[in-house]
Design brief:
The structure is a homodimer of 202-residue chains. Chain A is α/β, with parallel strands linked by helices and 202 residues long. In chain A, 40% of the residues lie in helices and 10% in strands. Chain A is built from 7 helices and 6 strands, in the order αααβββαβαβαβα. The relative contact order of chain A is 0.08. Chains A and B meet through helix 1, helix 2, helix 3, strand 2 and helix 4 of A and helix 1, helix 2, helix 3, strand 2 and helix 4 of B.
Amino acid sequence: MQFTSQIVEKAVDALSGFPGIGRRTALRLVMYLMKRPESEVGSMAESLIKLKTELQFCNKCGTVSDNKICGICSSPNRTEKQICVIEDFSDLMALEGTGQYKGLYHVLGGLISPMDGVGPNDLNIESLVQRVSEEKPEEVIFALSATVEGDTTMYYLGKKLEPLNVKISCIARGISIGGELEYIDEITLGRSLLQRTTYTTS
Amino acid sequence: MQFTSQIVEKAVDALSGFPGIGRRTALRLVMYLMKRPESEVGSMAESLIKLKTELQFCNKCGTVSDNKICGICSSPNRTEKQICVIEDFSDLMALEGTGQYKGLYHVLGGLISPMDGVGPNDLNIESLVQRVSEEKPEEVIFALSATVEGDTTMYYLGKKLEPLNVKISCIARGISIGGELEYIDEITLGRSLLQRTTYTTS
């Protein structure tokens, strides 16, 4: 691409650094910004900077927070009997969106992945073990991705938590609601057959 | 989406204002930014602000520029005999990418579109008429989109430029290079049949 302006080129370079955004899309975004009022572009830029300067992480569960303790950990409406272990705060938002969970969370900050150079010490695992031994929840729920990395992390966490005598569970894996059988991959289908649940009409 | 941080929510709101970027994608971009160094996020924010505060438009052709006259208009290697009329500076970049054009440009800043409330007075049309009558180029080339808006704009410009006795041309419309005949829409195919060109083997 040949630019007639260094300023435009730099903005395109910056935006095309985002995952999934190439230079053509970045150019479209820049052209959009050029047509917006200066105040709007300014407040967007400010909100991005604040992500690095003002954002904190909850001292208890590790999710993003504007305070030292997040709104979920400090809420009187949440039960401390359950701790749900998740990879990142976006998973917390997804789970909150279901409205099915009233316990607390623990954000690992990633999954064990030797291929990407992520080991157990890079994640918030020690703090989880400490939390479980101190707060003594009734149940620890693993809500991790159904990938090799998720399974590896679950296995490692399971070994770490076993001595603490806490009930450990893992969210169900099986066919999606609304999924048509003929289009489901064989591994998922086979596993959902093995882990079938009792069906009652009542 | 339920956010545990206002700062994250505001950043997601800001980024999801971009065309084609929903809240889920915006969240992914925010999570990417959170993992980048503060200096990188800062320089990205700065480059966006500069789009509104420092960017100029060439006084002659209207494209984005860091100076009062852009690099193309001030270049001694470009011929002043041709003026290519385009919608926006991204079209200029596309045309420069072909390496087939050595003339000057004129950026309209949009197309006539009554549906969107864009009339001739909202575009750089008067400056084009003035330029043609003063600079007396040999040819004005319309390189506008093959849409209703593009055709409307070409018709209007054609009427405006007719009295100035300048040769007016329009970039060729037809089947794309590499296009297979059976997949080409009927209107394009019909038109490319009507506007067929002489074929020689030499």
